[in-house]
Fold:
Amino acid sequence: MGKLKAHFDNIAFSHSVFALPFAYMGAFLAAGGLPSGEALLWITVAMVGARGAALALNNLVDLKYDRLQPRHAARPLVTGAVKPWEAAAFVAVSLGVFVFAVYRLHPLCRVLWPLAIVPFAIYPYMKRFSWACHLVLGVALAGAPVGAWIAVRGDLTATVSVLAAAVGVWIAAFDVIYGCQDVAFDKTHGLHSLPVLLGVAGALRLARAMHAASVAAFAAAGWLAGLGPWYYGGVALAAAVLVYQHGIVAAGDLSRVTQAYFLRNGLVGMAIFLFTAVSMFS
Structure:
C-alpha cells in the first residue's frame, strides 16, 4: 500500500479534478443528457490511464531537474520512494489501460487515440527548447472533452471545439502562473517558459487575459449547446474564483501559489460540470 500511495503521489492523483469533470461535460453534451453507464465507465478508465501515463512520464523525464529544484525535493522519484524503472513500468501499464478502455468506446476512438497521447508525450521536453510548453499542456487537457464527445457521438462539432479551447486556455494560463515560481531556476538551467520570456509581471498579465478568454469561450460553448441560466451561473462562479485567484498573486509575491491554489481551481471545473448537468436536466 505504501508503494501504491507513492505512485499516486507521483502522479498527483488528486489533480484529476482538472480534466475529468470536463471529460464528463463533453460526454453529457454529446449525449444530450445522461450518457450510458458503459460509456461513462470506459471514459473514466481511459482518462485515468491517460493521465497516469502523462504525469508519470513527465516526472520521469524531468527527474534530473527535479533533483536540483528544492521545491520538488519531496517528490517520490526524487526521494527514491518510486524508482525510475517503476515509473517507466507505470507509464506502460497506464497506457495499456488507456488503450484497453478506448477499444470499448466508439470505433472512431480506435483510430484517433494516438493523437491523444502526442501532446502529453512531447510536453515534458518542451521547456528545453520553447516557451510554448504551456500551450502544449493546454492542448493535452483540451483532449478530455473532445475524447469524451467522440466516445459518445463519433463526430466533432463547433460546440465541443469551443469547449476544448476554453479548457485548453484555462489550463495553459494556470501553467503560466505556476511557471512564474521557477524563473530563476529555469534561466540558470537554460529552460524556456513564458515567465522567462516576458518576465513574471508580463506573464501574470498574459495569464489574466488568457483566463478572461477562457471564460468567454465557456460562455460561448454553453450558447452553442443551448444550455440555460444554470450553466451561466457556473461560468460566473468560475469567473469569480479566477478574479480572486489573480487578486492574491503578484509579481513580487507568489507565496500563495500552492497546491491548494490549484486544487481550488480544479473544484471550479467540477462546479462547471455540475451546473452543466443541472442546466440540462432542469
